Amino acid sequence: MPKVIIDVMLKPEIHDPQGDAIASACRRLGFGQVASVRQGKRFELELTQPAAEGQMAKLAAELLANPVIEEFSIEQG
């Protein structure tokens, strides 16, 4: 069964308050080497058949990510 992994992250210029909170918690827990954190979303899709080229990018752009503030990467395996 074909599998596609889509990772969605905030664009680098967008502030990530949840990432900041995680980084702060890491330091409080004794992980002082953690300088910063960016959090994101990961989607693992199992397909019934291989997807046409560009179809997964369209799905990601229209449904899984907000292209104004997020970017995505696609890995097919």
Give your account of this protein's structure:
The model has no long low-confidence stretch (mean pLDDT about 95). This protein has 2 helices and 3 strands. It has helices spanning about 15-30, 55-65, and strands at about 5-10, 40-45, 70-75. The N and C termini lie close together (about 10 Å). It has a 3-stranded antiparallel β-sheet, with helices on one face. The longest helix has 12 residues, at about 15-30. It has a single domain, classed as Phosphoribosylformylglycinamidine synthase subunit PurS (Mth169, Chain: A), CATH 3.30.1280. It is elongated.
Give the SSE order as H and E letters: EHEHE
Please state how the strands of the largest beta sheet are arranged side by side: 2-1-3
CATH level-1 class? Alpha Beta
Secondary-structure-derived class: alpha+beta
What average pLDDT do the residues reach?
A: 97
Task: Assign an overall shape.
Answer: elongated
Number of strands: 3
Give Rg in angstroms: 16 Å
- The CATH homologous superfamily name equals Phosphoribosylformylglycinamidine synthase subunit PurS
Distance between the termini: 10 Å
Percentage beta strand: 25-35%
The domain count comes to: 1
Count of helix runs = 2
Helix % is 25-40%
Structure at a glance:
With 77 residues, the chain is an alpha+beta fold. Helix content is 29%, strand content 29%.
